[in-house]
Design brief:
127 residues, seven-stranded mixed β-sheet
């Protein structure tokens, strides 16, 4: 059974940093990609970033490009989301997810294309 668990959320001031972790069991991060999404109250779940099974250059949403960085530790089956220069509009519940081994085009950015999700971790940025 595939399970994902996020951790590292919390409350920070505008301009602060947080690092989220996503630990996977039942599947290795070196053979399946991992996506990060977020959902703010009253809004749809939106794509944040994705790292493929190859571990190549991650893809990011324009809203976080240059501020957020995805990395992973294969030995720990853990994917990280380093978030710098956080802004109040980054406030949301953050989720990690995994799905098919290969995504065509930009299908990795679509939440419905993922099969397994973590429970989410709250990130709150205050001004």
């Amino acid at each position: 059974q595939v399970q994902l668990a996020e951790s590292g959320g919390g409350s920070v001031q505008d301009g602060g940093s947080l690092r989220l972790s996503c630990t996977t069991s039942g599947r290795t991060v070196s053979t399946y990609g991992t996506g990060w999404f977020r959902q703010a109250p009253g809004k749809e779940r939106e794509f944040v970033g994705y790292i493929s099974w190859t571990g190549g250059t991650p893809n990011y949403a324009d809203s976080v490009k240059g501020r957020f960085t995805i990395s992973r530790d294969n030995a720990k089956d853990t994917v990280y989301l380093q978030m710098n220069s956080l802004q109040p509009e980054d406030t949301a519940v953050y989720y990690c997810a995994t799905g098919p081994r290969v995504y065509y085009g930009t299908l990795y950015s679509i939440p419905s294309r993922y099969d397994y999700w973590g429970q989410g971790t709250q990130v709150t940025v205050s001004s």
